Amino acid sequence: MTATPAIGARTAGPDLLRSVFRRHAAGVAVITAARGGRPVGFTATSLTSVSAEPPMVSFGIGAGASSWPAIRETGHVGVHILGEHQRELAATFARSGADRFGAPTAWHEGPEGVPVLDGTLAWMVCRIVARVPAGDHRLVLAEAVAGDPGGEGRPLLYQGGRFNALRD
């Protein structure tokens, strides 16, 4: 039997990857860190649970991202799961050049000096255990050391290039 190309098939590349993942719904997280006593952070939709024992997560960050130097140098990061009520917060942390920690962003210094965002559905402070080159990104593996899963609300999603809410 000979394989026939699928109708509409395209050669793989950045445009194909972006187009495919616009169809994928992902939870929205904000990753934070401190660099030189200043908070930094970015919106991530690549957060993944990796291991329960030890409790480990992964996320991707572009090697050219403004937050990469802090993530490259720090030992700990904050991982925040955003709720539907935090679309503006997600957009702020996704926007290049934004004052991400200025008003109205509410945050405090958490364990290991990591900036912890207030009002999220859940957060963890994680110790970075590896930074793996992956094309134009870095895959960061981090082990949870503290956290709080007690926030109220429903998760924020990212799909089709927009922040969305769950529908029943």
UniProtKB/TrEMBL annotation:
Keywords from the UniProt entry: Oxidoreductase
Record-linked SUPFAM superfamilies = FMN-binding split barrel
Q: Which residues form a coiled coil?
A: none
UniProt keyword annotation of Oxidoreductase present: yes
Quick one: signal sequence residues?
Answer: none
Does Lipid biosynthesis appear among the keywords? no
Residue ranges of domain Flavin reductase like in the record: 21-165
User: How is this protein named in the record?
Assistant: Flavin reductase
Organism of origin? Streptomyces alfalfae
